[in-house]
């Protein structure tokens, strides 16, 4: 391979939009020098398209991101911390000081959403998912954290889409506002939860404050849930409600522990990275479906994984610049790292509640956690400070994560929605690939389609082409690429006239003809 000097690598890094996993490096090398295979004439998947381009920046989204305030985020987290103990179980207590429990915190969040709505002319629909969680029975009772009927309040605000058709599509951002100490059953000790998860709640609140000033074709939902520390009770109830009410929920962004923990002496934390976790195959899926997905190698292409790839795509547009390339007023670099697992070891998050109901969902979490500052009584032992205290939060980092969430929400709300019934024809043994699909169910305006693909060892999309180049029309509903379906994974995404695209949908095999 041709050796690259530092200036060439820097050019490639700026052109491609930053190093997003190993495939980002591969793309940069191909863009600058071409692979060794290209020098010998090119592989089919290289000839058929171009290296994945960075989507154009939207002026309205860029303007909204500039309004995010680290100071407002800090003030909201400080207020949440001031409630002292936000254990979900504190809603059952009668001996706590007035205003020092989770119900008081929930009412304050509700009031904040109300203030944002008033500022935009009552543009937000205020909702409270208020319910009583009953303790489990049977074998689960022995390990239950909910041991008596417990009130849980999920607070959410809906910004209805401005387009009557596209408004059916919904995109949701959430964080949990309940907290805990070492003993998860303790409802009286100081449990500040500045990072876990006031930081995530602050992201949802800041997104509501800023994005409510704008109009988007599709609907955005801003949420703060409770009951996370007791077993994801709040998010599970809301996800089931969304399923029951028939929400066309095409993306859920969960923020949990995005405070960018800043511990004196820790040199391994990164303030320019955020992890994006997502579910692969659902364990609850029918065994036959799981077997089919594994046989096709599609265990890495669930709807949630495609949403994670969309986050990376948005990141490239608004954030992925080398530090030297950032000009005053521009967004600082923030590298989204796609983590190919549901969550961290021994931990869980609210995104799994939505994933379990069949909704695409991801979790944002800071790069490196300090576990002395999570699920701990506030104390100092042997010179080590324990507890989830405000002073360990990095509010500028939280603001960056909020911007990434907002850019993702807004891009998806502007885009036409995801293509439906996407299939790849597998009736013949050949080296072509014919893809078929139907339009999104709630799109308005002009829609064109982009076909993306990647080599099987890659984690992110590498190449793309306009579907019309390979025969797609509204009448045909299909495109045929001169690329072997056995060597790449394909996806189809819907784009608007401005170039904003939905997350991709990976095709399943079209049913084979019956044998004669």
Question: Quick recap of the structure?
Answer:
With 516 residues, the chain is an alpha/beta fold.
Explain what the structure shows:
By secondary structure, the protein is an alpha/beta fold. Helices cover about 30% and strands about 20% of the residues. The chain has 13 helices and 18 strands. The chain has helices spanning about 5-15, 20-30, 35-40, 45, 60-65, 70-80, 100-120, 200-210, 235-245, 285-295, 305-320, 350-355, 395-415, and strands at about 50, 125-135, 150-160, 170-175, 220-225, 250-255, 275-280, 335-340, 360-365, 380, 385, 420-425, 435-440, 450-455, 465, 480, 490-495, 510. The strands form four sheets. The protein has an eight-stranded mixed beta sheet with strand order 2-3-5-4-6-9-7-8, with helices on both faces. Helix 7 (about 100-120) packs parallel to helix 8 (about 200-210) and helix 8 crosses helix 13. The chain is globular and about 70 Å long. The termini are far apart. Mean pLDDT is about 90; it is low at about 1-40.
